[in-house]
From TrEMBL, chains A, B, C, D, E, F:
InterPro entries recorded: Creatininase (IPR031034), Creatininase-like_sf (IPR024087), Creatininase/forma_Hydrolase (IPR003785)
Organism encoding this protein: Cetobacterium ceti
Single GO molecular function: metal ion binding
Record-level GO BP terms: creatine biosynthetic process; creatinine catabolic process; riboflavin biosynthetic process
Keywords, comma-separated and alphabetical: Hydrolase, Metal-binding, Zinc
Family to which the UniProt record says this protein belongs: Belongs to the creatininase superfamily.
Record's protein name: Creatinine amidohydrolase
Xref: SUPFAM superfamilies: Creatininase
Cofactor list: Zn(2+)
Pfam families linked to this entry: Creatininase
Amino acid sequence: MFEHVKMNNMTWQEFAKKKDDVIILPIGATEQHGPHLPLCVDSVIAEEFALRIADKINGVVAPILSYGYKSKPLSGGGPLFPGTIDLNGATLQHLVMDLIDEFVKDGFKKIYIFSAHFENEAFIVEAMDLASAKHGDKVQLLLTNWWDPMSPDVIDKIFTEVPFPGWALEHAAVTETSLMMYFRPELVREDAILEMENAKPGTYFRYPIEKDIVPETGVLASAKSSSPEKGKIIVDDAIENILKIIDKAFK
Amino acid sequence: MFEHVKMNNMTWQEFAKKKDDVIILPIGATEQHGPHLPLCVDSVIAEEFALRIADKINGVVAPILSYGYKSKPLSGGGPLFPGTIDLNGATLQHLVMDLIDEFVKDGFKKIYIFSAHFENEAFIVEAMDLASAKHGDKVQLLLTNWWDPMSPDVIDKIFTEVPFPGWALEHAAVTETSLMMYFRPELVREDAILEMENAKPGTYFRYPIEKDIVPETGVLASAKSSSPEKGKIIVDDAIENILKIIDKAFK
Amino acid sequence: MFEHVKMNNMTWQEFAKKKDDVIILPIGATEQHGPHLPLCVDSVIAEEFALRIADKINGVVAPILSYGYKSKPLSGGGPLFPGTIDLNGATLQHLVMDLIDEFVKDGFKKIYIFSAHFENEAFIVEAMDLASAKHGDKVQLLLTNWWDPMSPDVIDKIFTEVPFPGWALEHAAVTETSLMMYFRPELVREDAILEMENAKPGTYFRYPIEKDIVPETGVLASAKSSSPEKGKIIVDDAIENILKIIDKAFK
Amino acid sequence: MFEHVKMNNMTWQEFAKKKDDVIILPIGATEQHGPHLPLCVDSVIAEEFALRIADKINGVVAPILSYGYKSKPLSGGGPLFPGTIDLNGATLQHLVMDLIDEFVKDGFKKIYIFSAHFENEAFIVEAMDLASAKHGDKVQLLLTNWWDPMSPDVIDKIFTEVPFPGWALEHAAVTETSLMMYFRPELVREDAILEMENAKPGTYFRYPIEKDIVPETGVLASAKSSSPEKGKIIVDDAIENILKIIDKAFK
Amino acid sequence: MFEHVKMNNMTWQEFAKKKDDVIILPIGATEQHGPHLPLCVDSVIAEEFALRIADKINGVVAPILSYGYKSKPLSGGGPLFPGTIDLNGATLQHLVMDLIDEFVKDGFKKIYIFSAHFENEAFIVEAMDLASAKHGDKVQLLLTNWWDPMSPDVIDKIFTEVPFPGWALEHAAVTETSLMMYFRPELVREDAILEMENAKPGTYFRYPIEKDIVPETGVLASAKSSSPEKGKIIVDDAIENILKIIDKAFK
Amino acid sequence: MFEHVKMNNMTWQEFAKKKDDVIILPIGATEQHGPHLPLCVDSVIAEEFALRIADKINGVVAPILSYGYKSKPLSGGGPLFPGTIDLNGATLQHLVMDLIDEFVKDGFKKIYIFSAHFENEAFIVEAMDLASAKHGDKVQLLLTNWWDPMSPDVIDKIFTEVPFPGWALEHAAVTETSLMMYFRPELVREDAILEMENAKPGTYFRYPIEKDIVPETGVLASAKSSSPEKGKIIVDDAIENILKIIDKAFK
């Protein structure tokens, strides 16, 4: 459905013609998402958003980065869960820097990074800062996720049955589960969605990591009340706002 | 008043005796804080908290790191203001890693990092993660700031005249100004505190940085209604909660 | 068809059960492949081989690395073609090192890297060497591509109409085109396959890169006579031999 | 007394006005200095010199770096003493490079680094070399300590009772003790100053470090005969000569 | 005999006059070469070729790099043999980058690297790529070895008694032994040349390295039938072809 | 004459037998030494000392590192002279670390580094410190040069006609020239030895480097009165003292 915006499918001549358009780099993660969601949640969400946005703005979507920065206990369950594959910060940073350099060499001037994994942010921003110092004013770099641009009233539409636990705890919870029900229903094990108490938000970082501060399932807040419809509400609202950000950022 | 907890003042023999106690590393920043506060705000706050906490727990305070990670427009005004001195992320990370290694070599097993600059967090945590992988279970590392451990009801006590703008915009605003009035009143230019509209919280990162998204003064929300009494409320509450965290983390 | 071997589709509990099996990391590239093939050729080939091999040995396939090391003029057309996205060697090396570390932390002891892009090899091997020094004898690391394990007589079966130009020049030529016709026929632009003279094999490296040593199309030898049947011959033979290598390497 | 030259005390607007003046970065160390001096000796000396020099030349003093490069046995007692906190060379180098970059971004063109810890020198110079290659002729970088610029005849005035043991062994000895008596008498434990034989100067480096080549106290030559008056002689003479160097270097 | 082309022998004034000529950097290795050849084989060959080429083109030969990148089992015997001294890839890369930078600072624009150790290639090329990105079109960088430029028919002249085992296995075998007999006969232990079966070419990389895939002597194919005359044939042919490459590369 | 101690000349089996002996790594530099000495002075001196010492202690001499750390104006003339080829500090450090690691892998436990270039010291020591932290007490590392171990009275024997200018200025002056007359008389241009005034010792570091602080010839003090006999005096005395250091260090 969105095959036409994928860089992967293009020949080099087709790709060369896109250089004045926006190139979107989706960055996800490979990270535990409890017993009801697969390890690819953040990557699926990043790619699906990227494709829909590219479709709207005539952009091109570069191959996704499927591995992200280190999951933290109280925003993603943390490194002790099998299947959570954590890059070092420096590795992610250099990966993003190299890709920005290469897109610029190919003539692109509008580079939009979409990250669906909270922990990625600081190291992507560090890469953008250093890349921007190198490439100057002619190259414009943008980073968003899907939750910060959401309209405040969407929270109310989504959290009709359970209270909003705060974004940090929205891991494998209502929003991500709803998004996966919308994007890839076949990958959601609905019968494994459990009633549970929310984890307590973190107020500090401690190493070695304390195992008992994360629920054993890896889910930080209940995914009960998730639905594909809620997924669609999030997607539609976030994309609408993101298009405005893109418009302003790449003016 | 807190001279007895400063590592700086100790001879090596005196310091050697402290190795079973908690060593506190304060990390601040050198960063613009508008026309009414000096560049040292984050460093003063980090050190003053560290000294008071050390005094309570019989700890020792290591020399402060006065330079921090890169200020961002909508949490600190960003790099375009003179006086904002930004370390690269890798530099801060290696600095913290080296210091942890050295404290461990000197026999310390309880290392507490206190950061008063939001942007430092990701790179300090990366350093802690890598240091912990190296030193294993015998060494316990803790990081807090002063805002996350605060009791929720303190917000209500502080924001009696102006609404709480969110932590990101609390830069050179009521909380930091009140803390400086409490810690170092002689460094606060009270007549330079202005009425102003809050900056709008950031929902994306864009490079090169857009100059027009930060107020010209560098202040992100009004510091009106700040007072040393409010500073004391914050300090007393945060320290009380931090002592509980320390107790749990270094059990 | 191979969904059951994809790590991406597993929950963390499902993935945790695979730890005594072989985990396969496919590494491709995003690189020009002339006017008849898309930029994803090396990534498609890497992933399709990985899936088939995993299916045979009850393994698990980790998410692919879609960006590889720098394309060279006389083995891939080189960096001057748009769409060829080159990582620095150090970046690829650290990426692979981080992933090996993480697989090992999750309990895996048999890690098989499949690369379909010649230029990746030296930096993957450097990563393996350093990772092996760290993890010791308990962790076994294996790297293959698809061309070195092929039986010598397959060359004769494939190159029935055009002479074998040597592996370096087999870029976007008969073998890769046949593989793509077998794996993803819808991505092959058959009418763009041209008669052409082979490029001359490189006997030196020169920088800045000489533009005139690579054909303008980016194809190094004619893809004429490619067919899905030839693709299947390669796949069947290479996998048979790779299974023997795996058997020996992970005994 | 020197509060007006401290960058720490300035608002960003005040700091911005100083950009055509000299900015001084003091670099000290946290290092054992025997039983009669505190760990902050090198930092106190670096900062006190920097303040006095800034006062003379209308300069500005940036926050001090309180941690330095690795102490060596026969110039500082070495790493085996608790309280000696050693940065890796690369860390110090990158720290200095980042700070030079940031001062330059803020418009400064005359950057003066004052180090009071011998071992820092090679890594500061490496940072200066690389920063200078980046910033070119418009930015002038200067490094001094306090001992190399001293007039030769000052040695005679200081070493009236004990012979000059050479600069390497002047660790926690007459010159540093006299400087501390002048700058911070309250931190000197005069009754812990001992008669002792000098350590033997080093003629080689050996690892692991031999414990028996450094006196158990960490003092390398006797501090007997130290006095605040001698401290003043050193300060006055060194500053006079440093002002000439500054004048020549930043012409 | 070639003393006049050695940079080592020149004063700085003599060297300064050569800046418009070609500077040649030979890179060898310190690596086991069986019981009949010394550890310096690759370094001797690199230097001897470099001297002869410099003599023909009025060039200058920089001091050799005697340590190279990691030997691999089936192209050099690998790291398990004593005397094989392996640099990390990053070390070799930075070494070459630094030297290119320095030759350029001294005014050289034609820099030719001659490597006689196969494994060096990828990391030298990475250094050249990054250096070229820095120095641009004015600086021309060339890399060759001695085997790729050889005329195909020379193989037939050399392998009269034993079949050509492929270049990977030509380690301490006929070509290298013949070259050493020609360049340094006194270093060849002829009576230690053994009849043997060839090692089997590698089709994969496996770590930890399998000891049993390399013959115990470290020789990968028999050196029987080596002679100084064959060494001369190789040298004469390779140099003739290399001169043409140089001519084209530095036009 | 010393061919039997050169690692270069040994087969791997011969080298393997030396593992309980001392391995010596000579480190020189490629650096201007005025109009009367060649660029290889520091390398020749390093190697010649290493060979003689190895001969005395039954050691083995590894291939020399011919490139060293950055020459400084007032100890070596500095980087502005053609022919002075400067490695970055990090490059030299990693080179030495890699070599120590490799010697240790080959079973050596007594590693002696001989440097004949002053500026190398800090980065070699950093490498030794980090390598020692890795290898622990079983591996002993030693570094000397030739001037620090010299007996004080040798100065009087050498400086009979010109006064000793201090070691920093002994660049291309009496000691180095005498050593070269002793080791390699054919490389000394005696008629280019000039009367001259000494350079003034440095008391600070300034970048960009001031050209006028170094004599135009690159010689820092007159080499008049040099002789091979004086070279022999230095060699004999330094080696005698170095043998005692070795004895103590590797006990």
